[in-house]
Structures are given as C-alpha cells and as structure tokens.
Amino acid sequence: MASRGRRPAVLLVEDDPAVRALVREILESADYGVLEAATASEALAIEAEHTGPIDFLITDVGLPAGMGGFELARELLQRRPGLKVVYTSGHPAEALDTKVPRGPEGVFVAKPFRPAELLGTLRRALAKD
User: Fold this and answer.
1) How far from 100 is each of 21, 35, 41, 58, 68, CA to CA, in Å?
2) How far is Cα of residue 18 from the mean position of the Cα atoms in its chain?
3) 6-48 pLDDT, tens digit each
4) Of 43, 31, 47, whose CA–CA distance to 119 is shortest?
5) Widest pairwise Cα distance in the chain
C-alpha cells in the first residue's frame, strides 16, 4: 500500500492505445502515478528499471506477443510480492478460456467499465490485505 504523502503507482498494461490513454486519464485524475506498457515484455522492462514502489498492476488478460496478463502477473508477483493485481478483459470472466484468479491473486473488472467502477476495483484490491 502507498505510504502517506506518496501517490500510489500503477503499472498499466493495455495493448489498445485508446483504452490505455483513457485508463491513464482516469487514474491520473484520481491521483495515481501511472507507468504504462503495451505488451508484457515492455511491462517487465519498465518494472525492472523502475526503482520506486509499484502498488498495482492493471493488465489486460489478452496481450499480444506471447505472454498474457496472467503470466505477466505471476512473473511480477515473484519480483514484487506485495503487488496488487487487477485483470481486465473485453470478455466476461465466465467466457475466458483461463479461470480468472480471485482472492489474493487479484480482482477482475470487465471492459468497458466506468471510471468509478475501475477506481472501486482498486479500492477492493487494496482492501484484500
């Protein structure tokens, strides 16, 4: 969790540039710091170079170029064990080929979502401590 006086940092991984820009705008308007990537490999490189804390990973389940959101989250959770994960998809959770992790592994929000729904999902993820 973010310490007092520090904006929570979010690593946002979304391959659609328009969706990524919209989510970044939502997060920044709610005073989150945003690191963004279009692919899992980009996200891993950003995480490796980022010296500060990362509080949240928001990742699309279906990412291009090999590694998907679930695999990315598993990798980042090994590097940053306290990381909170929010999965997104344009498909409802029931329709995904892979079971969407619940409980301590992360929470899920279906796209399209309203800003309040995304921010509420982040609050729920924080509450899972």
Assistant:
1) 24, 23, 21, 14, 12
2) 16
3) 789 999 999 999 999 999 999 999 999 999 999 999 999 999 9
4) 31
5) 41
